[in-house]
Amino acid sequence: MSKRKPYPSDLTDERWALIEPVISAWKALRTSATGHQGAYEMREIVNAILYQNRTGCQWDFLPHDLPPKGATYYYFAAWRDDGTDQKIHDLLRWYSREHKHRLADPSLIVLDTQSKRAAAGVPAVTTGKDAAKKVPGRKLGLAVDGLGLVLAATVVAASSHDNQVGIRLLDKVAEQTGTIKKALVDQGFKSAVVDHGTRLGIDVEVVKRNPVDKGFVPQAKRWIVERAYGILLMYRRLVREYDHRPRSAESRVYWAMTDVMTRRLTSATTLTWRDA
């Protein structure tokens, strides 16, 4: 670890110990012909990714005492493309569930979507306008368990119907585990998602809003996914769509949840906007 002054987003020794085995195994399979290990420590690369995720800065604005854009983006893209980002995330999710005396994989999931504006420079071919919410940009879909941990994330154009997002999430979840028996969704999802769930052996229940309720009223169990979205919005890179590739935007979700889970597992805390 370098001797620089730490940032609040930096990994502690305990948090790095939860991630390091996967990173070291990945690195061991990719040694150069000359045996060169690279100019930057893997822990510092992860620190740079977490710093950008939390602060929302552009690649060129990474602090000078962190690895530069070229090195950081190289590993971010490599781990995005080969699934290492999700592998780290999923191992931590299993560990987090077992830490709470739950089975590694859940039987119940909750699905929902959130439309976000796209920043200037995001390719128009990957964006659209959410007709219902009047939001131009992209739509993030999440499938979370009863603890609010993410099983799957998908990013599509905001013009995509919730049915399309729901079907993609159900497919992703079914590929990962066969334990899911029930999924809760809101009224934005229609019969196409219910029918697709039936084909996968998942009972999809549309939770209807009480017509007498006014304003936002949390619904039993479904509020868990709303909380997950709220937690993710603490990571400024996820407040808007900045990434050119939707897969990069999905990777941001996995890194944010990796940060959340390592903090919970080690009882680490960080300042939030609620603190004085």
- Spell out the helices and strands N to C: HHHHEEEEHEHEHH
The fold-level CATH name of the domain at 103-243 is Nucleotidyltransferase, domain 5
The main pleated sheet reads as: 6 strands, mixed
Number of helices: 8
Kindly report how far apart the N and C termini lie: 31 Å
**CATH homolog superfamily of the domain at 103-243:** Ribonuclease H-like superfamily/Ribonuclease H
How much strand content do the residues show?
5-15%
Radius of gyration: 19 Å
Give the overall silhouette: globular
Mean pLDDT: 91
- Specify the CATH architecture of the domain at 103-243: 2-Layer Sandwich
- Just give the CATH class of the domain at 103-243: Alpha Beta
Structural class: alpha/beta
Give the beta-strand count.
6
- Low-pLDDT residue intervals, each spanning 5 or more residues: none
